[in-house]
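INTERNAL TRANSFER SHEET
From: sequence group
To: structure group
Subject: E2 ubiquitin-conjugating enzyme

Please process the attached sequence and return the structure record in the designated field. Keep the field labels unchanged so the import script can parse them.
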Amino acid sequence: MSLPKRIIKETERLVNDPAPGISAVPHDDNLRYFDVAITGPEGSPFEGGIFKLELFLPEEYPMSPPKVRFLTKIYHPNIDKLGRICLDILKEKWSPALQIRTVLLSVQALLSSPNPDDPLATDVAKHYKEDEKGAQNVSREWTRQYAS
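Return from structure group:
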């Protein structure tokens, strides 16, 4: 299976020059499929956790965004029970100028700043809006339980 030059270049950069707190390694048998690990950002309720994600580059990439999903359970208003992520650049704000690296940095940033006003997990968003401290405690607890 031959890969577009762009994917090869991006992959080399991800492997040789990883962004802090992010690792993305392609599968040997499918180079469009990456195992991703993101470290919970310092000062966030996810600090100390290591979250596993999968990232897949569709045939149309870079004209369409990569598919990214959390495999590790996480209590976050913008990530649902199936691990789907509500992030504008994975949908309507996608641009071919963006890269896998940019996407993963944005996901990492989302962990630092949950946005309950654009929720995917409405129950979690409601919790975050009504009792932010309590919700952060649940996020911390889940991080300890599922992401350590």
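Handover comment: The mean pLDDT is 96. The two ends are 36 Å apart (CA to CA).
Transfer complete.
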